[in-house]
Amino acid sequence: MSKNKSKKRKAKRGGSWEEAPVGHSVIDSRKPGQEWQNDISAPSPLYDRLLGWLCFAGLLVLAFLLSFHTLVDTDIFWHLKTGELIFQTRRVPLEDIYSFTAAGREWIDSQWLFQLAVYSLHRISGYSGIIVFSSLLACLTLLLILAPAFKPEKYFLTVLFGLGTLLAASIRLKARPEILSFLYAALEIYLLGRFRQGKKWAWYPLPFLLLLWVNSEGLWPVYFAILGAFWGEELLMALLPGLQKYVRRISPLPPGQSAGQLLLCLACSIPLAFLNPHHVRGVVFPWVLFREVSSKGNYIHQLIWDNQNPFTFLPALDRDVFIALIAGSALLFALFLYRRILSPAALVLYAVFLYMALGALRNVALFSIITGAAVCLILGENRDRELLPVWLIKRGFLKLRPLGACIVLGLLIYLGYDAVSSNFFFRNIMHAKFGTGALATEYPIRGGDFLKAIMSKDGELKPLRIASDMESAGYLIWKGYPAWKIYFDPRLEVYGDKFLLEYLNVFSDPSRFAEADARYDFDAAVISSLQDRSELTVHLARNPAWALVYMDGFSVIFLKNKPALAAVIARHRVDPSLGFSSPVPKELSGKWLGRERYCRGYLLLKLGFPALAVPELEEAVRNWPDNYEANFNLGRALNLLQRYAEAVPFLEKAVEMQPEPIPGRIQLGRACAGAGQQERAVSIFIGVLKQHPHEMVACMDLARTYESMHRSRDAREQWRLCQEIYQTNPEFFRRYENEIS
């Protein structure tokens, strides 16, 4: 027989014989005795196919709903400002223009296409256009993941795996450049899957996809990882033909020819990576940034919250889904190997991106997208109705598939309702609300607009040098550039590691803030994350060189006492001792309103105004009753006002929610002692000291309680124990020295 002719080979294509070209190996993955109703060529009931389509459509709708929420990314506003500048000047900034601390320093803006896109959308339809755009991208990404595997005759595993992929990635589905990388990665795997099926044209768009990627988002090196994995698989098959006994190749092209074409694709892609505004520096930048971000000794790593361990910092649902996705993928790859349909490229991608995801929370979504796309690619190449172990099929497991589909549909409806009601976004700590817009509780919108209003005269904005933190800087850039220059913003790579250490110290240590003020001569300070930076806030509020002019639940604003700002300060100075009033956003209710009122109450409490804090904290508890911090601080404020009996129920609830923290138990003990429940207070303090023998505050409170009960001997003994605790570390306990002596 001629070499150019096809010879018959037994192939597992619906249990039939089919022609296979010479040089192309198709391995029979069906085990003897497997029932033929598991093949997709067998008829499937209409109701079963309808359930399949409903599940598929439901997943796409859920992808849209889970990403259709208010803006939550701290970077979005400086992205908008940069997009506006690119739109107006027709050029990409090459150096820092926003800060007075890194002005003129090189800035590699690898996200300029995303910035231009979101600004253009904002010009047309405001924030709504940006949010709808990101939701459609999320929906399209999931469609590309599911498309290779989904058929109404074989849908259950695809839908189940797609749901896991979506939920694991949901915490990153928001309006940020990264969402384009998710789309590009899913599209690249989809096209390479088509190439595996013999569509030679499928690799032609890939270099142009890279060109888009390299100008849209910094994760574009992932393109080469995916392409390299598929090229390596074809090369391996060409060099080791014997491997085709263990893995299925469905491509009609010989492995050597496929490897050659993918190598050509790789060669065409590399030059296009340099077609960015920064050329060679733009190509090098992502690799350097990846090294810095992944180095735990680096301050960039410390400042990026989502570099943390995913098992520790992921919300409960996201963590459980992530674990299930890891385990489910591993089981499927084991099944692929057993059925001899494993794709080495898919396995390599799973291993590489799993390693990255285990090291940083921020990589969980990328792992989910790539693993989902790779697994669905293999599921789509399989002819079985459902890829299951033989013994399950023999026991009629497929007859239960409609029931499983109904359960999945119910879960999709529940999750959709959870998203529409916004509860989903609060549980996964995004604190977003379903719908469009930007919440005033997540950005310094009220403070920034107030500052712009008081610093504007005759349509011109007065220049300011603002001591800004990472959370507030983006919005200040959006509202005030070019008149306002900021101290720091989220573009961490621009500032360098040495400056990042300075920033961390400046916003945590008032003395270091004073040093920075002497060096840079700030005009204003905008401070957010009030609970973490309360020490600096209290220091500036008591410092005569600064004047508090604005305060809400997200941020506070101070102006420096300079002659040029004296008139503004005189009109707008805030003195909480004369009362406090700050408007609450009308759109807030429930937990979002509770969070706003809690932050205001906490700040007033730290500033030394417990009487003003109590109404705010009462509203916080009313709107967010299961919040530990709100209950604890309300009880603490009532204790300071000596309203002990009122404090007891709130502190009891706080201790019930979190029994371990010492401050909650000590405050409860104080409330009980003040409310006439001395025996209970003694029991609480003794319990604390049994667990923490060197807890000085509990020791002193127990001594005072004994005194109030006229138990002089016990009181003297307790003060003696306090002396012993003091002697263990006099320097640490110096503030208690006078009272103990």
Tell me what you see in this structure.
It is built from 32 helices and nine strands. The strands form three sheets. The protein has a five-stranded mixed sheet, sandwiched between helices. Strands 1-2 form a two-stranded antiparallel sheet. Strands 3-4 form a two-stranded antiparallel ribbon. With 741 residues, the protein is mostly helical. Helix 19 (470-480) links the parallel strand 5 (464-468) and strand 6 (484-486).
List keywords for this structure.
32 helices; Serine Threonine Protein Phosphatase 5, Tetratricopeptide repeat; disordered N terminus; 741 residues; mainly alpha; two-stranded antiparallel ribbon; 5-stranded mixed β-sheet; 3 domains
Number of strands: 9
Structural class: mainly alpha
Number of domains: 3
Unreliable stretches: 1-36
**Secondary structure: helix percent:** 55-70%
Average of pLDDT: 90
Strand content: 5-15%
Per DSSP, the total helix count is 32
Main sheet properties = 5 strands, mixed
Q: What oligomeric assembly is this protein in? A: single chain
N-end to C-end Cα span: 106 Å
Question: Secondary-structure map with pairings?
Answer:
Elements: E1 7-13, E2 16-20, H1 46-67, H2 76-89, H3 112-146, H4 156-169, H5 178-196, H6 206-214, H7 221-239, H8 255-272, H9 280-294, H10 299-303, H11 310-313, H12 316-338, H13 344-359, H14 364-381, H15 390-394, H16 401-420, H17 423-427, H18 445-454, E3 456-457, E4 460-461, E5 464-468, H19 470-480, E6 484-486, H20 492-506, H21 510-520, E7 524-528, H22 534-541, E8 546-551, E9 555-560, H23 566-572, H24 590-606, H25 610-623, H26 628-640, H27 644-657, H28 662-674, H29 678-691, H30 696-708, H31 712-728, H32 737-740
Parallel strand pairs: 5-6, 5-7
Antiparallel strand pairs: 1-2, 3-4, 7-9, 8-9
